[in-house]
Amino acid sequence: MAEVADRDAGGTVVFVGTVRRKSEVGNVDAMEYEVYEKMAEKGLRRIEAEVRKKWPVKRVSMVHREGFLKVGEVSVVVAVSSEHRGEAFEACRYAIDRIKTTLPLWKRERIRGKNRWVEGVPIGK
What's the whole-model pTM score? Predict the structure, then answer.
């Protein structure tokens, strides 16, 4: 919240993504995230520029964790502040959707001691 605080913002929206227990193939014990860091950092800057072009936001902050995470742990946070709440909601939703479809992130579920790569959306779609 402090990252996106702005005295002119009337609305701040924060999306927090967590590792969930259920997947389409069973109960998840944990999740492992791998990221191509240089490309991901560049991608986050690009997403922020897109958000700023589409909405008059005050501030934007995005972070995606990598490594081993247990069920319930936070994997991604997107926060956006804007003068009006509607713009903040729209911009935040857009940012998380773009993270999911454009960043070089890979997820591996651990289900009952086995690892399974999660099929995602091809980058650029």
Answer: 0.89
